[in-house]
TrEMBL record:
Name of the protein: N-acetyltransferase domain-containing protein
Gene3D superfamilies, A to Z: 3.40.630.30
CDD domains the UniProt entry points to: NAT_SF (cd04301)
Domain N-acetyltransferase: 1-86
Matches recorded under InterPro entries: Acyl_CoA_acyltransferase, GNAT_dom
A Pfam family the protein falls into: Acetyltransf_1
Length: 86
């Protein structure tokens, strides 16, 4: 499951999404499910004209950091900032 909250810009159009969580059952991890969910969510956000997604990640959560970096995330202090292009 991925939880996402949109943010609005001055013109009222959603442009930035905040990823609240990425969750995969413990017995289903390391199978590519989280990455597939994340890629699907980012594609859907791009279709809806979001240009940026952010997520806060604990520095010690190396599995999540690796997942996010595998889809193009770049670190901004303790926040990983996702940008993507179609």
């Amino acid at each position: 499951m991925i939880r996402i909250s949109p943010s609005m810009r001055d013109n009222g159009r959603p442009r930035i999404a905040r990823i609240r969580s990425i969750e995969v059952r413990a017995d289903q991890r390391r199978r590519g499910i989280g990455r597939a969910l994340l890629v699907h969510a980012l594609d859907a956000l791009h279709t809806r004209e979001f240009g940026l997604a952010t997520i806060d990640v604990d520095e010690t959560d190396t599995a999540t950091i690796s997942l996010l970096e595998s889809v193009g995330a770049r670190r901004e202090s303790n926040t990983l900032e996702l940008t993507w292009q179609k």
